[in-house]
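Researcher: Let's try something more involved. This one mixes different molecule types, so please make sure each is placed in the same coordinate frame as the others.
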Amino acid sequence: MKLLEQQLRSLRSSGRKALVPYFVAGLTPDWTQHVEAAVLAGADAIEIGIPFSDPMIDGVVIQEGVLRSLEAGTTLDSICKDLSSLSTHVPLVAMTYYNIFFHYGLERAAGKLAASGITGAIVPDLTIEESREWHDACDADDIATIFIVAPSSTPDRVALLASGTEGFCYASARMAVTGRSADAVDAKRVIADARAISDVPVYVGIGIGTPEQARDASMVSDGVIVGTALVQLILDGGDVRAIEDFIGSFRLAIDTAPARSDFLSDAEE
Amino acid sequence: MSESPSFMSSPDARGHFGEFGGRFVPEALMPACLELEVAFRDAWSDDAFQLEYRTVLKEFGGRPTPVTPLPRLSDRLGLELYAKREDLAHTGSHKINNVVGQTLLTKRMGKTRVIAETGAGQHGVATATAAARFGLACTVYMGEVDTKRQVLNVFRMELLGATVIPVTSGSRTLKDAVNEAMREWVSCVSDTHYCLGSVMGPHPFPWMVRELQSIIGIEASAQLEEMGVGTPDLVVACVGGGSNAAGVFAGFANTSARLVGVEAAGGSAVGKGSPGVLHGMKSLLIQDEFGQIEEAHSISAGLDYPGIGPEHAFLATSGRAEYESIGDDEVLDALKLLSELEGIIPALETAHAVAWIMKEAGGAIPKGSKVLLNLSGRGDKDVAQVREILRGER
Ligand SMILES: Cc1ncc(COP(=O)(O)O)c(C=O)c1O
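Model: All components are placed in one shared frame. Result:
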């Protein structure tokens, strides 16, 4: 089992729901300080978005963030260099589109991520059917490959993805690109299907924009991912303090959620 | 279809043409891609579907389109030139072949709406046309730059009852229209089919669209035979994503004919590109040293695309087809020459193929060669733009 999954499983065993914020790397010169602020305020892992020119599953807010970061000259190498100054103990997971790694060279990319302290990768346009080469490249460097399940995934596909994913299983809360709001309802069926196959942690993302949505999603899963709302805050000029407050409000909502309800019976409704 | 040719046969089970193709899409779209593949395989091997597709193309689409000898241009260039007249198909280009197939398939899958991307607007107009004919709702995504270059096509789509959404992200051209259509598809996949306009995207699109366009090559080969011309020495077509080229090549892939695809110099994925992944496929793409996709630049909106369909990437790397490029400045002369000598105003896209033939007559094309030009579309949509440019030149 890869290191990332060991860590996320023990987090779950400790009874804590994971809070995973997404940052567009390089969006501002002090982006690594934003990451540190999020960790201070209670983030359990960080998604590091590596900008790609054609972010197919991202809505306008993240597109804007990615564009600005690219205009500032961000590259995989510059991100890894920035990460060397980051002092944090939480797991780091890269999120980008396949062409970034493919063009860099798969083994070289995996080695580069590992050397920068990244232990997992989410590549939304890399289907499990096409993932063999990337997976092989990651094994040597102990990088986990995280797959996304969607509300449209058939039970067969959820089974395939839940058994293939490493670290955690990313349950998309909505049939939409990032940045449209959601309640956790769309994700319930796939969470149940995933749990039936595997006891890998399941996190809900895509469409979680408010502390209330995060609380609700955390009640049916092992963690939540927050992207667009945070990127919007930073685009609007939010500083380290604002980021701490933002993450803190999500942390509080998750930690004060009522104990997990019998969601499996909910899912059968 | 049945004689299992060595080139342009079916891709492998996961949609690969050699190292290219495949499926690189968000999981949210995978079930739709799989459903589409099953539906297309089933329909394409169903005689009733084939009959309906061919009947609609005949009665509504204006097929078969003729093959026209081009005697005066032939004299001028020292070649024996023939044109396959896709400009005479309904809506003015080959795009109708693909959309008739895909809208029939949409109905067969029980979906009620189509979305499409468009560059020049030809695919958007064709999709809006077929959607009107078959009673489907239709939304077309078009780069904002292109909505300005092709104002009349936007209006055409609207007359046909479609909604046109200008895309303001990225380079605001075809590449971004595809991104936006894919994003939209994620949120409406249960009742909506994405009618992709070229031999690109995730499997099964590159293969399906080539099959739907292969009627061009199948007809042309029989027509040339009937005219006593036989197998041409060269088959030449312009290439954006590559659908008209794939369609005509399909009729000649297993003959001795040289196959030549002509890209816009500013969007030359074979000439300047390298392997990469975009829009659901692995193919040749124009990208920078970091793997960021570059913006294509062409006078013709339909060729303004930084990639090429995966089967073309395979035909290029395997050497079965050649890919050349033509700059903006060479295109207008070709458009004028074909208009003046043959009475046919070609689309700017098509004019790239004409320009390459003009340039290479007696060079890469030996004197006396029999050349089949795929005349992919008519120039009506471009006359306003051409007029502006020629005025500016004066
Ligand atoms: C007349 C015409 N030819 C060619 C093309 C390019 O597409 P493809 O390469 O798929 O044939 C277009 C696209 O808009 C077109 O309108």
